[in-house]
Amino acid sequence: MALTHLAYFSVAVLLLCVTPQGFLGDMQGAKGTVLIIGALGIWRYSWAVLNFSRALVFKLRVYPRWRKARDARFAQSRARHHCFFMVTSYMVDQDTTLPVYRSIFRAAMAARDGATIVASVVDGMDERLIRDIYRAMNIDPNHVALVIDRIKSNGKRDAMSQALRILASFSPTHNDIMVFVDGDTLVPEDIWARSAPVFTDPKTGALTTDEAAIIDREGAFKDWFTLRFNQRQVMMCSMGLSNRVLTLTGRMSVFRADLATDPTFVRAVGQDYLDHWRLGRVNFLTGDDKSTWFWLLSRGFETAYLPDVQSRSYETQPRDTFYDSAKTLMVRWFGNMMRTNGRAIAMGPRDMGFFTWWSILDQRVSCWTTLVGPTSVIITALLGTPIIIPLYISWVMLTRYMFCTYIAVFNREWFPVTHPFILYFGQVAGAIIKTFVLFRLDRQKWTRQGAGGGGKSAIPFYDRLKMAESTAFHALGFAWLTLAIMFLNTLE
């Protein structure tokens, strides 16, 4: 690893040496580009430093005291805190289902005041396997109740809303908690003990935890997920300082049980939608975690983050190549983000706090600012001087290495030399995909399902018209961005 990192820096230095002597002094033909990249760099890196600083303050100072206060309050409480689990499984192989449900049953048995599990499944084989696991673990049915909801394959939202209605029949109270779990995620055994004290604060509506991916195959896909979850830990710690995270992760999050069974909450999960001025009524297919998050945000509830509790999910590469797999997943993730953050921005900063509101606004703005640097370099290389290219590549290599170093130190694990390249790929490709879905909020598709856009059946004329409009608006947006960059590049 040391040799690969040494080679990395050698390449960065060689690229700097390619730059002619005195070029940085006069920057002939590239002064505008350097000024643009420098100004944007100051803004973006200041924002990164702010989030890094907030994350450190939260993790090292605020969270330990925050946790201690809630644990002390919980220890004095005599209330019962039942633990409900809502588990959704679809097209999960048996080798994954077996350890996942074992972890769920162990966590349920560890819940002091009992647990109720509602598992939503489509396949009869899954139902039989889950019941076999339940019997094989010799679980006391008086302490842990299991309900299996066998449903038709109508999507995750329908499965969740039906499971929540079943859970509502148990009349959970404001002291009870409910764990939302995907059928490919391992649950920490102490999830009840770590989560129940958090809800002694009546302002807290839900919490989410650290995440890790289980990927057997080495390669870029695994490195990408590792870096992504390490970045997530930093950003979530920063948002945790405000007690309002930006998403309640669908893999595993914990809710106050009476809120999760509120009829309006169940309706938001099952039938969320967006009325768009051009696309009309957009019914949400994916993004249930954003719907639950927005329901709590719009009602003034806080959402906590637990950096020292971790769920682990089995991840498989959905496509043959890394690029196709990353693109497929990012289209879904960022589509969910863009469909929800517009209405969150419209709420304003008064109730959620300025930092949270600004972070949501930054999700929309950053997809354009991220593209300014590479676009400006390409224009300058074509119309001015190509010397800007090695200089820019060296700049990218050094700055992304710096970011990866901080992320690694924060998470206490070193990184492979692929991470700086993957970080830059994620930023630029992610920005392109964000702009794509921003103009196509009606395009949705699950990774494991054929529902949503992209089918081979005949497309109605009105839908083809909307697709053409989306392409035209997207092209117009890029045209305005390019013209603005070309104008700024003329500045001396």
Plain-language structure description:
There is one protein chain. The chain has 492 residues and is of the alpha/beta class. The chain contains 17 helices and 10 strands. The chain has helices at 2-18, 23-26, 31-76, 94-110, 124-136, 156-168, 191-195, 220-240, 257-260, 263-270, 288-298, 322-347, 349-352, 354-383, 388-411, 418-438, 461-489, and strands at 83-88, 115-121, 144-150, 177-182, 185-186, 204-214, 252-256, 273-276, 280-283, 302-314. An 8-stranded mixed beta sheet has the order 3-2-1-4-7-6-10-5, with helices on both faces. The chain has a two-stranded antiparallel sheet with strand order 8-9. Helix 5 (124-136) links the parallel strand 2 (115-121) and strand 3 (144-150). Helix 4 (94-110) crosses helix 5 (124-136). The longest helix has 46 residues, at 31-76. It is globular. The protein starts with a helix and ends with a helix. Mean pLDDT is 92; it is low at 450-455.
Observed structural traits:
single chain; 492 residues; alpha/beta; eight-stranded mixed sheet; 10 strands; globular
Offer a quick outline of the entry:
By secondary structure, the protein is α/β, with parallel strands linked by helices. Helices cover 60% and strands 13% of the residues.
